[in-house]
Structures are given as C-alpha cells and as structure tokens.
Amino acid sequence: MTVPLSITELTHRLDYLLGPVLSSRRTAAPLAERLAALGREQQDFVLHWVEVIDRSNYEMAYQFAAAAPAALAKMDTAAAEAWILEALDTYDRDGLYHGSQVFKQIDLWLPSAADAHAAAFAQHAVVLELYACGLAGRRMKLDVAAEPYTDTETLFLPPRIAVFNDAAANFNLYKVLITLLWAQGRYGTFHTDVIAACAAYADQHRALSLLSHFETLRLESRIAAVLPGIGRDLARLRGHTSDPRCAVLQDPSATVQDSLRLLTGLYDQFEVPSLPHHTTLRAEASSTRAARLKRERSALAEALAQLLPEQATDKAPQATAGDRIEIQAKPAPGASGDFDVEIRIDGMPMAPPGHVAQLLDSILQDLGEIPDDYLHAAGSGNQAQATDNESADNGTAIANDETGTHLYNEWDHKRRHYRKDWCLLRELDVAPVDNGFVEDTLARYRPQVVQLKRSFEMLRDEDRLLKRQATGDDIDFDALVAGYADLKSGMELPDRLLTRRHKAERDLAALFMIDMSGSTKGWINDAERESLVMLCEALEVLGDRYAIYGFSGVTRKRCEIFRIKRFDEAYDDNVKQRIAGITPQDYTRMGVAIRHLTKLLNGVDARTRLLVTLSDGKPDDYSDHYRGEYGIEDTRQALIEAHHTGIKPFCITIDHEARDYLPHLYGPVNWTLVDHVERLPLKVADIYRRLTA
Amino acid sequence: MASRATPLNTRPAQGEARIIAAEPYYEPVGGEIALFEAAHASQLPVLLKGPTGCGKTRFIEHMAWRLKRPLITVSCHDDLTAADLVGRYLITSNETVWIDGPLARAVRSGAICYLDEVVEARRDTTVVIHPLADDRRMLPMEKRGELLQAPPEFLLAMSYNPGYQSVLKELKHSTRQRFVAIEFQYPNAVLEEKIIRTETGADAAIATALVRLAQMTRNLKGNGLDEGASTRLLVHAAKLIARGIPPAAACHGAIAEALSDDPEMLRAIDEFVSSVF
Hints:
heterodimer; A: alpha/beta; eight-stranded mixed beta sheet; three-stranded mixed beta sheet; 27 helices; 19 strands; B: alpha/beta; six-stranded mixed beta sheet; elongated; disordered N terminus
C-alpha cells in the first residue's frame, strides 16, 4: 500500500484526469516525474484533489498538479488544503486567471501557509462577521484584501494571518483588526479627508502610513475604555512601549486633528514601526462615507416625515417639520462614546421606532451630531428633499430589479465546503392555461374524488365535547349520575366526571415541490397535474394551509421556481389554470430549490411544516457536474439544513431506482415509491393523508 | 360563597394571591410609576409591552408593593381557558363546589391580577377580559349566573412581548385598545449598570463590561439572534461572577448558551466576552 506510484502509473492517471488540457506539447510526463518523488500518501492527496478540482476546471487542476510537489515539500496537507480551498474560492469568485494565480504564486502563500497555526479568513468568516455586526450595530461587510483597510462600510482583512505560532493568537489578530477598522469609522478618523490632508507631503504614502500609526495609537485608548480585552491585545501588539511624543493621543478627547498635528510635527523624525496590526488609510473611505451620509439623510427625512402625521394633525399645516421635530443627542455618560438620543415631536418626547433609532445611530457615528438641517429636510416641498428622494428612488429601483432573484450557497461534498452564492434563483409564475384541464380531471375521477373527500373528512378535526374527563371546564352529568349510583352502592366515586371542550388545532402547513424537469414530459406531467388537482380537492376539505411550487432550471445561473399556489392564495380559477399550465422545463437542480422553498415554508407559522417533493428521478443539471454524487450530496445537505429549521421533508417518487439514493437523502422512511405513474393521481392525496393523520 | 372543601379534581392552582411585604428593587426608567399609579387611581387596566427579561414582572411586583395590593400572577399558556381564569365547579364526594379562578379571586379581593404573556392564552379568554377591561369593570361568571363588579382597588394588568414575529401571537386591537400601555425597553447603559450592581453587588468594571456585552448581542438581533441578552441574563452572569466563576465561563453559561444553540454564534458571543473583559 505504501509503495509510491511509479512515473508510468502517475502518467496514466494524470493523462486520464487532465486529458482535456493536455496536448502534444503539454504532456503529463513532467508532472508525473515530479510527483513520483513524493510519498504515496502525498501522491494520493494530490490525485484526490486533482480529481476534485477537475469538477471546477481542468486548467485549475493542471495548475494545481504542477504546483503541488513544491507546495507539499513546504507545508503539511492541512495547510495545503486551505491553500487549495482559497484557490477554488478565488476561482469561483474571480475566474480562472486569479484562481490559477493562487496556485502559481505559491511563494506568496507559503510564508503563512507553511505555518500550521495560521488563521484563514474563510475558516472564521461567519464568526468574524457576527463579531463585526455586534460591535458596530450597523451593517458591516467583511472582505479580503492584501492589506487591512476600511471604506467605512466594508472591513477588508488579509486572507490569512500567520504572524504568531499560535492559531488562537492569529485569530485574535483578526478580531483586533476588525475592532481597529471599526473604531476608525466610529471615532472619527474620517471626519476629515485624510487623503487630502496627506497629499501635501513629499511622500504621501509615508505620510498616510504615519497618520495611520498615530490614529491606531489614538484609537487604542478609545478602544481600551470600552473593550478592555482588545485594549490589552493592542498594548501587547504595540510591545508595551510608548513614545512620549505621542502622549497627547492618549487623551480621550483627542481627535484625528491631533493626529494630523502630530504628523506635521514628526513627519521627518518618526520611523513607522512595523506592527502586525498596521492598517492603511484609503480614499474609498471618504467617498463611501459621503454616499452613506447622503443616503441616510434622505432616509431619515422620509422616516421623520412618516412619524409626523401620526402625531398631531391639529397642528397648523404651515409649521415646518424642522419646527416640530427636535432631536437631542447627548454623549452618553461614560467613555463608550455612545449617544443618548431623544426625539421630541411637537414638544412631546417619543421613543424612536427601531429603524429610525438605527439611522440616527449610524448618522451619529459618522458626524457626532444630528445637524439641524437634517430635520428641515423633512419638510414637504423642500428642494433638498426632492433631490435626495430622487437618489433614494434610484436605490429602490435597483432593489426592485433584484426582487425575485435570490442567491444561494451550494454544497460541494468533495471540498466539504459551500460554494458561496453559487446559484441564482428566480421566482416566476406559471402561465395560466384555460383549457378545462381541472374540470376534465374531476369528471374522469369523479367516484374517486368523492371517496377521497370522504376519507379526508374523517381526518378533519372538529371542535367537540370530550366526556368523562379527569380535568375539564364543566360537569359531565351523565358520568356524575352513574358515579353517584356507584357511590351509593358502596363503590368509589370515579374521578372522570368532567367535560372538556376539545379545540381543533391541526396546525400544519405543507409545501408541495413539483418536479418540472424535461424528463416529466408526456404522461408523467399529466399524472403530476392530475395529482395536484386531486390533492387540492382533498386539502380544501381538510383546511390545511398549503402551497405548490414547481422547480426546474438550466445551470446554476438559471435556477427557476414556478409559483403555482402561494400559501396566502385561495384555490381559485387562477390556481386551477396554473396547474393546467404546468409544462416540463429543463433540469432538476434540487438543492437550491429546497433551500428557497425552505425559506418560504419557514415564513409560515405552523407547528408542523411539511415539504413534500414530487419527483421523477435523481437531481440533475446540464453539464456542470451536478449529476451524480455531487447533486445528491448537495440535495442531501439542503435537506439537512431544512430539517435543522424544523421542516419535515418527504418525497414521493416514481423512479424505480429510487431505493439506491432516496434513503440517503430522506432517511429510510420519509419517502415512498409509486410504482405506476397512472396511479399517481390517486396515491398522492392518500399518501398525504397517511402522513398527516 | 367559595367553598373551602377539598375538591377531588384540582388542577395545580396557579395564581395564589401574594402580599408583597418588602420593597422589590425596581429602578424607574421614565415616568412609568406615575403612569401606573394614575391608571390604578382611574381604574384603567394596564398593558406592559417589552422584550423578555427587561423588568416587567419586577415592575408589577414593585407596584403591588407600592399600592399595597395583593398580587395574583397567572402565567398564560396555550391551554389556558376562560374557565381557568374565572373558576369551575368541582365535585366532592357528595356535592359540587364552585372554586374561584385566579381572576375571580383578584376581583373579589381587589387585588392586582397580572396575566403574564397573555398572547399565549386561548382566544376565548378575551371573553372574560374584555368586560373587565372597559368601564363596565365586571367579570361575568356564566356558570354561576353571577356578575362580579370589580372594586376600585382592583387592577388588571397584562404583559405582552411584541418581539414575536408570529402573526398568531399578536394582540387583537379590540383587546389592546382597552389598556393603558407602558412600553418597556432595556434600560440605558448607566441605569442597567446600576441595576446589575444593586442586584448582585458586582463592581463597576464588571457591570460596565456586562452592559457593553449586552449591547453587542442586541446588535445581533435579526442577524442570527432573535433577542439580545436581557437585563435578567446580565444579572445571572454577575451573580455567577460574584461567586467566583471566571467572567468568560459565567457569561458563556448565563448569556451565550441562553441566547443560542448555534456553535458559530456561541463562538462569536464568547469573542465579545473576551473583548469586553
């Protein structure tokens, strides 16, 4: 087992794996030669990953195979895995060129990758995002960049940190950087245009670098006051030494102006120390901040205008909003730098609604006050507001364009990672067809429909009076009379003497997910549609909340969900015509459909939430490897996610091979096979009945 | 004519009247005490709105003490019916006896009746709440054919957490518009620190750090957390710290685990803890 593979064996494997990107001039032989020098375990590792990367791109796989021997000489497999995932993520995000650069520029990666203690951003992204969100109280995005900086909305962090020989310390540096970048926005680094302020110096880069250092020192004392833990980390990173020339920055009232004054004084005499938590200051910050201020100003104007009419309608209409609203923001006691905000409308204090409070807080973070003209902007017919509203409208227009499209992650089982925002899904309506399909179906199955309705009626729970109860609201006189007779004849009085009202609470919502792939063309499609007709008839009797959606699509960029019946929609002619209008479409990318419908189903408040899939075969998609194990594993992952949120998935299939994969997806009992397609219409409602009885 | 006979069929009775002798510690946030007193004097019912653990129950205890009225608290649940509030007939070996429910007892004795989390109760409870909550101030006891008139000292109070996102757990307008509403929020930082210190004897640094931690978790509301850490949780953590548990462990147990089960969220909250301490 441990004998390494020979060059010939390796050439064969690589020829097979990399075939599409090999040619007479670019053969597998040189790769095989270098791989032959590795141990068997490492060879297996490389071949495994070549196979995995193949699924994304052959060229990427080739570049990996070329870079792997050198890489494995310098790092262990865990670090190499992180390196590969980084390359694949880059490829997913930025394309082949950038992806392959990660493989080619291994030397850039090595200093950190060689270190098993390195912390990778991708690995900790979720926790770091939560941390930033909790810290900031307004939306903060995190992203990677070569050097840490912020544009005041996104915090850019290095993809990996390997400064220390300790994974926890490296992770902690991420935390420190996030706090520092947040503090730049929070404590006023960008209250002045730092780029312009440094432009006058001979070496602007050096000036900015120095200013950033001074700001870090200034912010350190602000941070230490509110987050002592991070304060200690900062002091440790600084090396506990402090330059007496910078003492002024430790004053809690120091501002960016003090840093700028220090820069003027010390520009020629101060060497910027090389510290692990050094950040850069960039021009993006001022432009982003300006855009945000403008956006929030108009949003505030709108929000305040909405507050007004509710308050005092008897006020003279000529009173302008600025006269009626008064906002006082006082710095909160203590060193936190937070504000106590009080809104008075027509002299009456009021608690601002959540979104207004958030806006005010965000503006206060940027400006340190709410300028008076912010209030005047709320007046009707005000010029400033008109222009602001225009820009706000543009914003919503874009958002409107985007409604109906959703991005979802997809699980790559080989990488054991999600591909981020991998699938683009649109919600569409099925075009209604008025061809009497529903009526025909009902006519054809008339006896069965009657029977079906009857069986569902039996399931229907009704309010009823339960007799002979141990606890209850009222006396059960029949039981009492009998009991009294018992008592008189020397027996004990039974304890079940009360009646209790039983309330029907069939608290159930079901979402039916209908396979609309091309493979359902013909009689399967007919059977599906007939099933839906029967199902709707039965469910109307039962009164359960239900929705019906179809799914299909071609590739990850065009996943489609077809609305047939929403939860809040009645089973009316429109729905009937949409059922008639269900036509086979393209492929079955199931994972993304399950994720989307899970979201919809979770929006319904019900004790039991059922996701019932009607399917004719395995998950499948056009050309991009979804077919087979990848698709099955992604679907399984999506089902696990759904399960975690409390949804009960169930699958009804007509695929005779279903036994091979459905137990793996749904578990041993949560699926059923309907042998004969023609029986489907009669079976589906019946299965639902058994499922929910 | 509430009989004292021992009934055969009793549910575990909740809502015993309680006379509060010692002043329960309560830190006023705004004018809520004056408002409550005025409502009581005007014979108006009161609705306390606010997230969990922000001091609603403590407030009502404080007011019961202040107004020197007995307090009857009923924790509402989804099986709570009108009969549970008003009362029911029970059967002893030889007779049927009527047992007053907590609401009827409160009306008879001029107590404060506090229905905690009233949206959890069944809809039919509104039948008895409505006539009691408007100017009729009477409790119909249908089964006894009796109409209880509430004495002036009686006050009906309910609590309600508007943070639930479920449409089913919203209070109907016909109900809420009978009440004087007092909104509770988490107290501001200075006040919250004072509360923690008074409740637990924690020192200023611990209280400040805990409040800062709470703010960070409250920032995550809607971003992975349904609710941020309440004042109650901070008091729990401070109590553990006072007993010598290290802050990290105390906050993990009392706050992080109480807020979430998600491992990444737990890690993030632990990171908050290590930042603020």
